[in-house]
Amino acid sequence: MHIRLFALVILPIMAKHYAKLLRFNAAQVLLAKNPNMSLLDVAVKTGYYDVAHLCHDFKELNGPLPGAWAKSPQAHTSLLIDPLNN
């Protein structure tokens, strides 16, 4: 019973959260490399539904909104993993 519960309930949640983190990380990398890129372009290129969802994830996972973060020194000193170049 416990294994079935894990497979039906826990694994999908873990997979969804992991996908969210990967999408967020890709957005961070793109913004760090292109701080003047429009947030709409970032959202589209990284799989977000719209800019509001991108901003929500930034606020939840990072603190500052994406535009402010991209122009901060933190954007260029954070340890970012570029999923496209690893």
Write the layout of secondary structure elements.
Elements: H1 2-33, H2 39-45, H3 51-61, H4 66-70, H5 74-77
Protein architecture, described:
- The chain has one domain (about 1-75): Arc Repressor Mutant, subunit A (Orthogonal Bundle), CATH 1.10.10.
- The mean pLDDT is about 80.
- It has helices at about 1-35, 40-45, 50-60, 65-70, 75.
- It has about 90 residues and is an all-alpha fold.
- The radius of gyration is 15 Å and the shape is elongated.
- The longest helix is centred in the N-terminal third of the chain and has 32 residues, at about 1-35.
- The protein is built from five helices and no strands.
Task: Sum this structure up briefly.
With 86 residues, the protein is mostly helical.
